[in-house]
Design a protein that fits this description.
This protein is of the alpha/beta class. Helix content is about 45%, strand content about 20%. The structure holds adenosine-5'-triphosphate. Adenosine-5'-triphosphate binds near residues 15, 16, 139, 176 and 177.
């Protein structure tokens, strides 16, 4: 059977909603079922103590990031969170080979990619209230109080933008982590061949 074209799943949602957690745990549990992996994006931010270079991000100096941007290395880039972030364009060349990708980026970056590649699948993660985000971000303890405040302001802006002009194809409530992972599984399974059933 001919391999189908891979899909690019873009996962967004306000800071602290659990994008990284849902995507990481989905991949840990179900990666073996699909030809799918997470895109490692580039950033100039300082790594958190738990983040590993090449796994969570490619951490680069600002002049390297700017040189890459100049060369057209990025599919999209943004600087909303006090550092530069960029998605490497080469991920688009891997999709025709049948590999699907999950990319965690903000709504502005997702809109930039959507304009150029309308066949991407946009997944928005949300929670019932802003206070849940505040609680998760303060418990995560990876940002200062000031940074958390700034993230919450951006979160409010992003949530409002999505409410005013809904852009995403799928919405996942992440109040209960297991339910959110199952919902992501259902979404991916509706677009991607399941390796185990293909081999039956
Ligand atoms: N369903 C959930 N219930 C309770 N806590 C959760 C849930 N999902 C994630 N968390 C916790 O919330 C915190 C934020 O999650 P995570 O870092 O995945 O968010 P994020 O959306 O990727 O944030 P950012 O955009 O700031 O990187 C983490 O400490 C994580 O363990």
């Amino acid at each position: 059977m001919e391999k189908q074209h891979g899909k690019l799943f873009i996962v967004s949602g306000p800071s602290g909603v659990g994008k990284t957690t849902v995507v990481t745990q989905f991949l840990d549990q179900h990666r073996h079922l699909f030809d799918i992996d997470r895109v490692v994006t580039f950033t100039t931010k300082q790594p958190r103590s738990t983040e590993v270079h090449g796994v969570d991000y490619h951490f680069v100096a600002q002049h390297d990031f700017d040189a890459k941007a100049q060369e057209g290395f990025f599919l999209e880039k943004s600087g909303e969170y006090g550092a530069s972030y960029g998605t490497p364009i080469h991920i688009m060349y891997e999709l025709p080979r049948g590999s699907s990708k999950i990319l965690v980026i903000d709504r502005v970056g997702a809109a930039q990619i959507m304009q150029k590649h309308p066949d991407v699948v946009l997944v928005w993660i949300e929670v019932s209230s802003l206070s849940v985000l505040a609680d998760r971000l303060s418990k995560r303890s990876t940002e200062s109080v000031e940074q958390v405040k700034h993230r919450l302001q951006l979160a409010e802006k992003e949530i409002q933008a999505e409410k005013n002009a809904p852009m995403y194809h799928h919405y996942i409530e992440n109040d209960k982590l297991d339910n959110a992972i199952t919902k992501l599984f259902d979404i991916v399974a509706s677009y991607c061949d399941n390796k185990t059933t293909l081999n039956m």
